[in-house]
Specification:
By secondary structure, the protein is α/β, with parallel strands linked by helices. It contains 20 helices and 19 strands. The protein has three domains: 172 residues, 3-Layer(aba) Sandwich (Dimethylsulfoxide Reductase, domain 2), CATH 3.40.228; 194 residues, Rossmann fold, CATH 3.40.50.740; 130 residues, Barwin-like endoglucanases. Strands 15-17-16-19-14-18 form a six-stranded mixed sheet. The protein has a five-stranded parallel sheet with strand order 3-2-1-5-6. A three-stranded parallel sheet has the order 7-8-9, with no helix packed on it.
């Protein structure tokens, strides 16, 4: 987040939520947004194919087709520029590349965008005016925006919208990506990405690489590594022979699970380090029991870049150990002596090598923690990034982005669009929440949301089990007939092994920059179970007669 969570409740006068369902996926943030709207009169714009809880209190609801984000955002910028609502002073003083961007968006009239997004042109105009004229405005997004083959383009378009209105670097404004998992911000901060060291220092940066080589007394590669999806693909092709999976469950969370399963079984050696015997761990040659968050010391970094202390509350059960202890022992046994006395010692090394963390210490993190960048021991932390338009790179860079259609669009064979997401009552792959009896009893199974118009057309009743298919495979799932989504879109969650949505998603086309798969758009078909059984029986009979 460029700004702080508290601003969503008190400072923002307009909040634009796109590709995110905060009340279910980020409930604390969702409640703050709702309070600001209901009690402080903040304006709210929601863009989502589903009518979410926040959409019910929104001033403008934009039910755009999944995968059409760039067209929608370009059209909003088109309105802002053509109606003289752009912040020209901010643009001239703090940005570059405006003219090229403006030239591209000039063709994205609301009427043209309507043909792509399905959103009425007048609603696009209303949303654009509201965002530009309400005062400090912030944009919240999550994986509904990023998990596309055009995810990078989507995020750059969001940044274009914020910069063209000067909504950067001040309270209540900004661009706020809502992190989807506990401490995912901290993991990224610590270099758990294939192209950076800690604090987003590029692997390809010679000076940064030399610094880490000196600290660790090793020679480090000068090329970026592979993302998880790329790794799975290479394992599938036999180019990777061994894999070490820690705190991740690709046999539920990765796209096209048939592909994932084949890839993992194709490995010579699979190690999984986790706190439960996950679907992935069940395929492992070796399982290493890690400690959970309450069984170890360390830090978390949350979605607003706040680094916070985590303290051990209980001893790990059985043979479980802290992840860092396991890694140190493995490294030592493999010929690289790695010895730390404590998590605090590791954090001290982090601060010595990471400029954005340089001013932090366990002592300074007492209480509410600190937001990075925090470059010196005297620095109070940074609540607002790019303050007063002073961008890290100097000037903010506009990007000229053309709309690109999703890789897989509905056709005659697969006439629907499947998109996926989460439930309030379950988390990610269900590894933890489905082991909680109360939560699993409340939401015990996956459901496929289907619009009444589509249900009537297909002769499907509410609660009926159907077969949901894409080009990757099929699952059987119970329907939930609801008018909260478009008639041409169906939705389900991915928490449930019994009807795992990711058997259906595709891993073929990745975002060219971020290498993220297109989870949110899959051409799909619904068939009645009885009809499917009848057709399969006929086929069996014909084969028998032959």
């Amino acid at each position: 987040m460029t700004n702080s969570i508290g601003e969503l409740e008190k400072d923002a006068r307009c909040i634009f939520v796109i590709g995110s369902n905060p009340t279910e996926n980020h409930p604390v943030i969702g409640m703050k947004i709702k309070k600001n709207v209901l009690y402080n009169g903040a304006k709210l714009i929601v863009a989502d194919a589903r009518y979410t809880d926040l959409a019910s209190v929104a001033d403008v609801y934009l039910p755009h087709l999944p995968g059409s984000d760039v067209a929608l955002l370009n059209a909003m910028i088109n309105v802002i520029i053509s109606e003289g609502l752009a912040d020209q002073k901010f643009i001239e003083e703090h940005t570059e590349g405006f003219e090229e961007m403006a030239k591209v968006v000039s063709s994205y009239t609301p009427e043209y965008a309507e043909t792509i997004t399905g959103v009425p042109a007048e609603d696009i105009r209303k949303a654009a005016r509201l965002y530009a004229q309400s005062g400090p405005a912030t944009i919240c997004y999550a994986m509904g925006l990023t998990q596309h083959s055009t995810g990078t383009d989507n995020v750059k378009s969001v940044c274009n919208l914020a910069m063209v209105t000067g909504n950067i670097g001040r309270p209540g404004a900004g661009v706020d990506p809502l992190r989807g998992q506990n401490n995912v911000q901290g993991a990224c901060d610590m270099g758990c990405l294939p192209n950076v060291y800690t604090g987003y220092q590029a692997v390809t940066n010679e000076a940064a690489r030399a610094k880490f080589e000196e600290a660790w007394k090793v020679k480090l590669p000068d090329k970026n590594g592979l993302t998880l999806t790329e790794t799975i693909n290479k394992a599938h092709h036999g180019e990777i022979k061994a894999l070490y999976v820690m705190g991740e469950n690709p046999m539920m969370s990765d796209p096209d699970l048939h592909h994932v399963e084949e890839a993992l079984k194709n490995l010579d050696f699979l190690v999984v380090q986790d706190i439960f015997l996950t679907e992935t761990a069940q395929l492992a040659d070796v399982v290493l029991p890690g400690a959970c968050f309450a069984e170890k010391d360390g830090t978390f970094s949350n979605t607003e870049r706040r680094v916070q202390r985590v303290r051990k509350a209980a001893n790990p059960p059985g043979q479980a150990r802290a992840d860092w202890e396991i890694i140190c022992d493995l490294a030592t046994r493999m010929g690289y002596p790695m010895s730390y006395a404590s998590a605090e010692e590791i954090f001290a090394e982090i601060t010595s090598l990471t400029p954005s963390y340089a001013g932090m210490s366990y002592q300074r993190l007492e209480g509410k923690g600190l937001q990075w960048p925090c470059p010196t021991p005297e620095h109070p932390g940074t609540a607002i990034m790019h303050k007063d338009g002073n961008f890290t790179r100097g000037k903010g860079a506009f990007s000229a982005i053309e709309y690109k259609a999703p890789f897989e669009l509905p056709d005659e064979e697969y006439p629907l669009l499947l998109t996926t997401g989460r439930s309030l009552f379950h988390y990610h792959t269900g590894t933890m929440t489905r082991r909680c009896q109360a939560l699993d009893e409340h939401v015990p199974e996956a459901k496929l949301e289907v619009h009444p118009e589509l249900a009537s057309k297909l002769g499907i009743a509410d609660g009926e089990r159907v077969r949901l298919s894409t080009r990757r495979g099929s699952i059987e799932i119970k329907t939930q007939v609801t008018d909260r989504l478009r008639p041409d879109v169906v939705f389900t969650t991915f928490h449930f092994e019994e009807a795992a949505a990711n058997w259906l998603t595709q891993s073929e086309l990745l975002d060219p920059v971020a290498k993220i798969p297109e989870y949110k758009v899959s051409a799909a078909r619904i068939d009645k179970i009885q009809a499917v059984i009848s057709e399969e029986s006929k086929l069996t009979e014909r084969k028998g007669m032959g």
